[in-house]
């Protein structure tokens, strides 16, 4: 930064230096020892803010409030609220391969102690749990379009499990069985219809066993239930929720499921009409 002066010697303005012209792209791939990006106290990845003492020793924002007398643990100089902006800037620019890179993901995510949104929800290579994880204690996990083959080999196929997209199908299941895995012969995909009991009735919902990645297909479904051959209760069409693991908790969003009060039920068996369509 330079000051320019007028002829009488007075400073007239401050001239900002110009950004240098790069001969290559401003973003390049390189190698870095990730240990250098970890806090030297807790050994966890740095997160903003990062604090430093006058000697340049740095600590993360999580460890900073726990320092004895606000002194640097390495040289005993005060740390206070002096931020290390250079380190923060570097940290915000560092990306690393998605943790699912070994499965085929080519995305890069910010380096940090928390799972990125991509890894947590949007990576199409996120691991799905077998739909029998809770009921049969199966511990198998895999990419969403691989779980299908695992299930076909290791688990018993139930009646009424196959359907065709866009066509209505009658489905029978026992409420006490809690879930019915639905499959189509044309695609290696798995859908789960669940019955979740509560004192006043039963919630019926259908989920697609897959991550919420924009690269993964989307589906809608419609459920119909006839009571005494006269009254028909219809739910949907509704966009299907994608899940990585089947849960038997009462849905937080009540509109995500069809609710059948006890007076509509005929014992333990449910007979519904189902139609699943691909959203295009």
What does this structure look like?
9% of the residues lie in helices and 32% in strands. By secondary structure, it is mostly beta strands. The model has no long low-confidence stretch (mean pLDDT 84). Strand 1 (2-5) and strand 2 (11-15) form a beta hairpin. Strands 10, 11, 12, 15 and 16 form a 5-stranded mixed sheet that branches. Strands 9-17-13-14 form a 4-stranded antiparallel sheet, with no helix packed on it. The chain has a two-stranded antiparallel sheet with strand order 1-2. It folds into 3 domains: 33-93, Zinc/RING finger domain, C3HC4 (zinc finger) (Herpes Virus-1, 2-Layer Sandwich), CATH 3.30.40; 95-125, no CATH class; 128-278, Apoptosis, Tumor Necrosis Factor Receptor Associated Protein 2, Chain A. The radius of gyration is 29 Å and the shape is elongated. The protein has helices at residues 85-93, 117-122, 144-154, and strands at residues 2-5, 11-15, 50-52, 58-60, 95-97, 108-110, 128-129, 141-142, 169-174, 179-183, 190-198, 201-209, 218-227, 231-239, 241-243, 258-261, 269-279.
